[in-house]
Write a structure and sequence with these properties.
4-stranded mixed β-sheet, 2 domains, elongated, Alpha-Beta Plaits, 338 residues
C-alpha cells in the first residue's frame, strides 16, 4: 500500500518526537547518576576529614587540658556523626520510587538535615555548660600550647577545603543534607579559628580564663548554625512552599505563553523534597484550544521550568475557560452558556 506524502510526514514526526523523548529521559537519568556519585564522594570525604580532626583534637585537648580544644573535639565528633548521617541519607534518597514510597525517597535528606541541626544545637549547649563550670571553679591548662595551635590551624585549612566542596556539590544537586553538612563544617572553621586566636592570646597574656570564654563564643556560633539548619530542614519536612523568587520565575515562564494560556489565580503549589522540587500548576485554556495544542503548550512550559530547576517533578492540570460576557471563571456544570 502506498502512503501519501502527509501520512509519511506525520509518521516521521511521530518517530522524531519519540526518539527525542527517549533521549531526554536518558540525559536526565545520566545527570541524576552523576549527581548521586558526586554526593556520595563528598559525603565520604567529609566523614574521613571529621574522623582525623576528631582524634587529633581529643588527644591534644586531653594532653593540654584546654576546654576550648576539647569543645572543638566535641564539635568535630558531632560533625562526624552528621557526616555519617548525610552519607546514608544520600544513598537512601538516590533510590528510585517504589510501592512503599511512590513519591521517591527525597525526604530522607531533609530528615538527615533536621537531625544534624539538632546535633549541632546539643553540642553547643554541652560546651556552654562545661565552659560555665570552668569559669566558676577555675581551670588548669598549659599556656604554652604549641601542639594545640598546630592542630587548630590544620583544622581550619582542612575544613575550608571540605566545606567548599560540600557547598559546591550541594548547590549543583540541590541537596539539603550536603548543605547542612557544609554549614556544619563552616562553623567548625570559625570556631577552630577562634580557638587558635584564643590560644595565641593565652600564650601572650598567660590568662587561662580566656579558654572557657572562647569556648562559649564558639558554642554561640555553633548554636546559630544548628538553628538555621533545623529550621530550613523542618520547613521542607512540613512541605513549606518554595521561596517567592522561585514562584515568580515559574509565573514569568507561564506569562511568556499568555497569548494562549492563563494561570489560574493562586494555583501554583511548589515544595522542596530532598534534592528535588515538586510543582503543581493549574492552567486555563480557551474553549477553542484542541487537546493536542493544550498538550504541546503544557510540554513546552514543563521543559522551560525543568531547564531552570533541573531536578523537579511537574504536574500541570488544564481547565477550559470561556469568555462569554467577560467571564473569567473555569467552566463547570453551573456555568451559564449565554
Amino acid at each position: 500500500m502506498t502512503l501519501d506524502h502527509s501520512t509519511v510526514v506525520r509518521i516521521h514526526l511521530r518517530e522524531f518526537f519519540i526518539f527525542k523523548g527517549l533521549l531526554t529521559k536518558f540525559s536526565d537519568k545520566m545527570y541524576i547518576m552523576q549527581a548521586n556519585s558526586k554526593k556520595k564522594f563528598v559525603a565520604g570525604l567529609s566523614i574521613t576529614s571529621n574522623v582525623i580532626l576528631s582524634v587529633l583534637k581529643v588527644i591534644t585537648g586531653i594532653l593540654s587540658g584546654s576546654l576550648s580544644i576539647i569543645s572543638e573535639a566535641i564539635h568535630s565528633f558531632s560533625d562526624f556523626f552528621a557526616s555519617v548521617l548525610t552519607f546514608f541519607s544520600v544513598i537512601k534518597s538516590s533510590k528510585p520510587a517504589d510501592d512503599d514510597h511512590p513519591y521517591g525517597h527525597g525526604k530522607y535528606e531533609d530528615m538527615a538535615g533536621f537531625i544534624e541541626g539538632i546535633l549541632i544545637i546539643a553540642a553547643s549547649l554541652f560546651i556552654i555548660y562545661e565552659a560555665t563550670k570552668k569559669i566558676i571553679f577555675g581551670i588548669n591548662m598549659d599556656s604554652e600550647n604549641m601542639l594545640g595551635m598546630a592542630v587548630m590551624f590544620v583544622a581550619v585549612v582542612l575544613n575550608i577545603v571540605v566545606s567548599s566542596l560540600l557547598f559546591k556539590v550541594a548547590k549543583e544537586t540541590n541537596s539539603i543534607s550536603l548543605y547542612a553538612d557544609g554549614e556544619h563544617l563552616r562553623t567548625d572553621v570559625y570556631s577552630s579559628l577562634g580557638v587558635l586566636i584564643g590560644l595565641i592570646l593565652i600564650k601572650i597574656t598567660g590568662h587561662t580564663i580566656l579558654d572557657p570564654i572562647i569556648a562559649i563564643l564558639v558554642a554561640v556560633i555553633i548554636f546559630k548554625a544548628g538553628y538555621s539548619i533545623s529550621k530550613k530542614a523542618a520547613g521542607n519536612l512540613l512541605d513549606h512552599s518554595l521561596p517567592d523568587e522561585n514562584i515568580d520565575d515559574i509565573k514569568q515562564i507561564i506569562q511568556s505563553h499568555s497569548d494562549s494560556v492563563t494561570l489560574k489565580e493562586g494555583s501554583i503549589k511548589a515544595r522542596q523534597v530532598g534534592p528535588s522540587k515538586d510543582i503543581d500548576i493549574v492552567l486555563q485554556f480557551p474553549e477553542s484550544t484542541s487537546i493536542c495544542e493544550c498538550h504541546n503548550i503544557c510540554d513546552e512550559i514543563e521543559k522551560q521550568i525543568q531547564s531552570l530547576y533541573y531536578n523537579c517533578s511537574i504536574s500541570i492540570h488544564a481547565e477550559p475557560i470561556c469568555y462569554r460576557k467577560n467571564c473569567q471563571k473555569s467552566c463547570d456544570k453551573n456555568c451559564a452558556k449565554i
